[in-house]
Structures are given as C-alpha cells and as structure tokens.
Amino acid sequence: MTQKILQRAAGYEERFNTLFEEYFDTVSAGLDAPSFSRFTPECLRLLRELSLRGGKRMRVVVLHEAARLVTDERVEALDAAALSIELLQTHGLVHDDLIDDSPVRRGGPSTYYAYRERFPRHSQTALGLTVLAGDLALALALQVLLEAKVPVAMRQAMVEVQTRAAADTFVGQIIDMERDFAAAPDEEILHCVADYKSARYSILAPLQLGLLAAGEQPALVARELREYARLVGICGQMRDDYLDLFGDAVVMGKQTGTDLRDGKHSYTVRALLAAADDTERRVVQSALGDPACTPETIAAVREIGERRGVPGSMQADMHRFAQQASAVAAGWRSRWREEAVTFFEQLPLWSVERAM
Questions:
Q1: Among residues 64, 109, 115, 108, which one has the least CA distance to residue 86?
Q2: Using CA atoms, how far apart are residues 63 and 46, in angstroms rounded to an integer?
Q3: In the 3-class helix/strand/coil scheme, how is 111-133 assigned residue by residue?
Q4: Chain-wide mean pLDDT for the chain?
C-alpha cells in the first residue's frame, strides 16, 4: 500500500485503540449484573484483555475507508460501528480458540485456557464460561449499535448488517468443521467456507457499515460489494493457508504446520494432494490430522510441496483472485472518491503479499 494509505491506517488504529480502552472502562457500569457476582467482572476483564491485545484492526480500517468513499468529513457513527465490529471479532476469537483448543491468542492466553487455569478441576465450568464470554461479546457488539446516537433508520440498518454478519459467520464455522469430514473437498467448497467464515464479517460488513454511516445506501450496490468481499476473502484465506506451511515461523511468531496437525482440508492441503505422487500423497495423508506430527514430518511435507511447485501455483492463484477483486473496486471510480477507491484496489494485493 502507498505510504499515505498506511499513515491513514495507522491513525485509524491508534484512535480506535484509545476508543476501545475507554469503552471497556465504562462497559461494566452499563451491564446489569448483581453486585455479589465475581465471575461477571472477571469475564469482562478477560474480554478486555483479549480485545486490547491488538491485531491489525484491518476491519476498522476498511470501515473508515468505506466512509471515505463518500466523504472526507468526520463521520460520528463510525465509532459505534468500529466498536461493534471489533466486539464481534472478539466473540469469534473466543469461540475459535475453544473449537480449536488453542492455548494462545495474540501473544497471550486464550480465554478458554485462562479459564482452564482458573478452574483446573472443573473442566465443564471452564468450557461453559468460555462459551458465555463469547456470547457476551456478541451481545455487546449489538448493544453498542442499539445505543448509538444516530438516526433510527441508520441504527436499524447497522444492526441488521451485524446480525446478518454474525449469522453468516456461524454458518461459516459449521461448514468449516463439516469440510474436514469430506475426503477431498473441491475448490468451490473451500471458496464458500472462506466467504461465509471470513469475508462476510471481515470485509462485507465493514464496507456496508462504513457506507451506511456516511449516508450511502449499500443495498444499491449489494452485488458489487458482495463480489468484492468474496474475492478478497478467498485470496486472504489462501494466504493464511499458504503461510501455515510455507511461511517463516520466526516472522509469524508461531510454528508452521498447525493446519496439517489439526486435519484441516485447507487450500494448501488440497494443492499438495493434487500435485503429489502416490508415495508423497501418503506422507501428506499420514500427517493430516496427527496432533503428534513431528517438525521433521512437517518439513518433509513442505519439501514435497516445494518440489512440486505448490508455493508458486498457490501464489499465482492468490494474485489472480486479488486482481479480480481490484478490478471490481476500480469500477467504483465513477461513483465514489478516488483516494478511497485506490485503497480498495490495493487491499487485495496487500492481503496476498503480507508475511504474517
């Protein structure tokens, strides 16, 4: 991305992080919990810690740039929309880490493992409180919009966007788990999972919310927005899957091969199985779903992929989808402001060139 866009993105991130801290400073006062409860404030503390540990805040950036498609004036409704987007993300992270049994998130303990440490002899309590913590984050994501000081019609439209995004994400989680029970899911299934699980709440919803906040009617360009989000979601998920095997573990701050060990039928696994010969395929299949798979075996699978040209073919596919998404955004020039259109043209290419 251009230096000017990166500076804008850094400004959005810095301002939002301050806003998020202020939100958590006051949220407990508005939550109707009995005074004797110790678990409720503890739950809010864990949500706060996870939420404020960061991430790239790219959804917030997309939200603000979507509003800039319409105007460069300050748009008040963006604060509530940004809080809602990131609270929905927190909800997803809490439940993702429970589903995947992940001990670490954003450089700290996952909510699930924090509760497991808190209740080492009460596993069902730890599980139940994790589910409820995620549920609370979802409720807060909708509540912050319902309480936003914006016109009623705008507020209703924003709540509808986020409710639909949440429902689509749940369906995405379901079909993501279902995918891994298929012997060899085809490419369209992988695209569908990427769309529902990621694109609709990470790209489409922030786009819609930003346009709504700026007074635009996203329903008038619904097909274009959905296609753009789908394409960005696909190339972004491909990049995640690629990095899981072919990325630099030091740069990413986590080990490679997690998807293989977890038995995920990712884009990378599909590409490996398609390119390998019978002997190599058996090596990949033996590693797939083996939680005790050694680093040496992961390295052997990676070597098979490199020998068969999988990194290059995956990069070519990622860039093809990124270019298609950029072409969709380029068509917005006749309707919206140039500098924001440029951001949405460059976003897909950034998503496939990132190192982590």
A1: 64
A2: 26
A3: HHHHHHHHCCCCHHHHHHHHHHH
A4: 93
User: Half-sphere exposure (CA, 13 Å, Cβ side) for 187?
Assistant: 7
Classify 31 in phi/psi space as left (phi over 0), alpha (psi -120 to 50) or beta: beta
User: What does the pLDDT read at residue 256?
Assistant: 87
Strand segments (E) across the chain: 104-105, 108-109
Residue type (1 letter), 353: E
Q: Which residues on neighbouring strands pair with residue 105, listed in sequence order?
A: 108
State the DSSP code for 196.
I
The tokens for 252 are 């990413």
66 by Cβ neighbours in 10 Å (0-12 / 13-18 / 19+) ranks as: buried
Spatial contact of 82 and 13, defined as CB atoms under 8 Å apart: no
Q: With H, G, I as helix, E, B as strand and everything else as coil, classify residue 254.
A: coil
d(CA 292, CA 332): 49
The CA-based angle 168-175-228, given to 5 degrees, is 50
Look up the CATH superfamily of 1-155.
Answer: Farnesyl Diphosphate Synthase (1.10.600.10)
pTM value?
A: 0.93
How is residue 247 written in tokens?
């990325």
Amino acid at 219: A
Distance separating alpha carbons of residues 292 and 331, to the nearest angstrom:
49
Q: CA-CA-CA-CA torsion for 89, 132, 25, 164, nearest 10 degrees?
A: 40
Give the side-chain half-sphere CA count within 13 A for 337: 15
Return the closest-CA partner of residue 350 out of 248, 257, 239, 268: 239
Q: Looking at the predicted structure, is the pLDDT value of residue 253 above 70?
A: no
What is the rounded average pLDDT of the residues 197-207? Answer: 96
